[in-house]
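ugh ok so i messed up the first submission bc i forgot one of the chains. this is the corrected input, ALL of the components this time, i swear. 925 residues overall. if the numbers dont match what u have on ur side tell me asap before i send this to the collaborators (the ones from the other lab, u know who)
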Amino acid sequence: MTEVNANRRARLLFDTDELHYDFGPGHPLQPTRLVALMDLLESAGLWQSANEQDRLPLRPATIEELGLVHTPDYIAAVQSLSLPVAGEPSVGRQGEGEHILPTHQADSQAQLALKYGFADGDTPALPGMHEVSARIAGGTLVALSAVMGLPEGGAIASENERPLHVFHPAGGLHHAWAERASGFCVYNDIAVAIAHVLRASEAKVLYIDFDAHHGDGVQRAFYDEPRVMTVSFHETGRYLFPGTGDVLELGNGIGRGYSVNVPLQPFTEDDSYIEAMDALLAPLVISFAPDVIVSQHGCDTHAWDPLTHLSLTMRGIQAQIKLAHQLADTYCQGRWVAVGGGGYDLYRVVPRAWSIVWAEMSGQLLPVSLPEDWVARWRPAWFGVEEQEALAQQAMGKTSVPANFPTTFQDRPEDFSEQPRRWTISRTNRHTVALVRHLLIPPSVRQAFPSVQNRSPLAGLFDLLHLRGSATPSRSKTLETQKGTLLLRDFCPPSLIDRLTPDVGLRAFARIPEREHQLLVSIAKRPDCALTVAHTQSGEIVGEVTLAPGDEWWEGLENVYEVGIEVSSNWRGLGIAKNLLAFALDLDALEDIILFAMGLSWHWDMEGLGLSVYRYRELIAWLFASQGFTEYPTTEPNVRMEPANVLLVRIGKRVDQRVASRFLSHLLSSPNLTGL
Amino acid sequence: MIVSEVMTTKLITVTPDDTLSHAANLLRQYQFHHLPVVTATGRNEWSGYTGSGQNALPEFQGLLTSQDIDLAAAMGKWSSSEVLHRPWQERLVAEVMHRASIRVTPTTSVAAAAQLLVERGLNCLPVVEYEQAGQDDGGGSRPVLLGLLTRSDLLMALARSLGAFEPGMELMIQLLPGDLRPLAETLVLAAQLHIQIRSVIAAPQESGVPRVATVRLGTINPAPLLVRLQEAHIQYTFAGSLTEGDGHD
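and heres the new structure output, hopefully the right one now
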């Protein structure tokens, strides 16, 4: 398993037929960007079209496969609109004559176009669009099937030959709805591919959308599907198509909590973007535990893009790609499919951005400079659109630095001027990220991944609990249960947690016991958290209580700590939770602090419990009541979202009256929702 | 805009003879707060006039709200009166419902209905039509329930008017008092560029005239239109203006 082998397991899927996805001259989405990309890959020696090892053949998606996502009437309409109409100058390819419709049918065609979203300049109906769109959808379907080892991915000699990473640059048409074309997208190749995997396997899919526009089509397709988590980083919909993608679009029914939206401010730059990604993606992946990652690499986030207001450079775009790769390698056994997407600076941005995707995927180092012959070939193409592009950028309010055609893969910082409102933009983004973390990431995972600015703001006060780090004596106590003797330990140092192993039923937060164990190690390492565990004499952790400073939502409040509790599904009904909680809260400082616990029904293992949510809610309230917690009404958005959710609070007797009343008024305010 | 365009027509109803426990279950199951009480339907769930036979038209009797049930439950706990010794779950809808005498018809304007809701502090208005009753019913008219108009319906109508459920992006066009030409020109330019308009709102401000028009464009590619607007000297606000806001001071 060396570099060479790793290279062999990355494939790029490209077919010249995909270049027929062409809405005609003057349209922002030009297939020449793919020509420029393939040319760059070949000239830089990153990919050889002749090399079978690097590629994967594609086939069109069948009507039946398209029907997994799209409605039959829509597919029929697309097919019908794919036939050229007489008397109308058809864009793209000219029809082959035999299929030309008589003019009197043109009216009904126009009505079809209007009904199914083809009536505007964005996604005009064009001859042959069904065929090319089905081909692109088939490409992404083959890519994902190959990575998942499904038969549609093609015959593979042995498991070791199976491609691990596949890049399909023509894919990524994330705006298409089930029954409507939208935003340059006819068939939603991503949704079709994911829906196929859902049908053909038990796998869970994480979709990460880096396009500057909200990935609305994919989100809609899986809005109530808990086996697909969609995560979209995009420019806020306030000024940008498609207008959706608010933080509070969280999914519906059993899919609640599986749609994640991170709307960023216009003119967001690299640092703020990277901070948002880093704070969210790893904890989301841990808590969802997907089997495969599908990432959409729309590069219209770039500062030069004429259609959006985001202001990234190649540095930010490369960070997206590296993070997606790293997450797939760490958490999904490498299974990763990347697709293209938006990107309307056709020659300066798209070829470079997607070369980085392929280089990262295939483990190749990028040279510093672009090949001179490539620059010579494509610079004139840019000259052709330069003026138009500059006008568009200026109309979108982007500050244009007189720029030239790039000669390096990376951007040069001097080509970009600093955004005048950088500080405000970063602050607002940080605020958005905090809200997303608060809403979607379960407490134990959040505690194991503290956000940067939240790193022990109250460390001094927390010394009350800790009496200085490692010097803290860890108490222990034995607990006799029907299933055997347990040891309870508080203030567990990381070395102890490392030595213990997780019980197989310990997976409430990270879904996999080994990862739950990793979370516990991370929490034990934090100086501002206290971890109490119950373990068997043979060293298996069967329960845990965590104590950590309140997250960003409680910012500005002193002495507020969140309690989290978990007992392995194999050890329930033995009174462990109650004893463990009592033991963990047997603290000198207990009366000096405010403790709270949040019960959110979507984190509950309802199958494992065999209780109704309301019954379980009572159980939790009763458990915490044994330690003096009472239920408080609150406007906190998570608790408010479901009647089964509950907030339990214990205010210590020695807590200052003003501190307590500030806490109580915070419960009923909603400071973090304003301004979104 | 009239009530029939925005009201809820898929209704869950109860009859006067149903028990409160049945009603409470329905409210919990569907997570809402108002149950219309009707007679002469064989089913709980119906949609418009899909029933058969003369008796299929539901006659509106009144409304049962979750508040009515809460009250009945609380009284069941505290009152010692003889009648109330039955557990509240067994009491009948007819005993607890109220007549909901403030009603609207399908052709009432939405503005009038909104004003009613706010002025009377209501959350919900039954939408009824009065029909002439048969001879054996003793003549007179009986109210037939067609739908419910709740505050949520009005909010959804507002969001729909803003075009919020269609993919698109918002553009604000500055207007001079009494002069809607910039808006008209914008719309013409959009039509020339084949850009769909999802919604247009030019609501009067305090002065009684609109000063700004909000246009929701159904496009991912606004730049061509924006360039044309600049050429035509039409003032628009957009993300770009944010930079100008505090960038230059």
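quick check: The first helix of chain B runs from residue 3 to 6. that seems consistent at least. Confidence is low (pLDDT under 50) at residues 41-55, 242-249 of chain B.
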